[in-house]
Amino acid sequence: MLLKGHEEGELRRRARAALNAAMIPRERPTGLWGGNGSGESCPVCGHRVDEAEMELEAEFAVDSTSGVREFHLHLPCFAAWEIERKSTPD
To answer: N or C: which end of the chain has fewer CB within 10 A?
Structure first.
């Protein structure tokens, strides 16, 4: 798994890059769920969240006609994104 051995600073750098590239929103999610990995790609590290791993699914409202966008993140990737989204200006 990619996240083993990754330091917090590296994950925060990746989260910052994902925010700057608009790969994940800066705003607070409208919904947040935890559970087993779905096999989806994490927007912070780029690796799949396997079924054997825990994930956080963050949901964001787009608008009344488009519905929602969902992102599946490893727990350490979510933590890094949360720190960076709060410390990086909109």
So the answer is: C
Could you tell me the fold of the domain covering 8-87?
first zn-finger domain of poly(adp-ribose) polymerase-1 (3.30.1740)
pTM: 0.85
Tens-level pLDDT at each residue, the chain (90 residues): 354 556 888 999 999 999 999 999 999 999 999 999 999 999 999 999 999 999 999 999 877 676 789 999 999 999 999 999 998 665
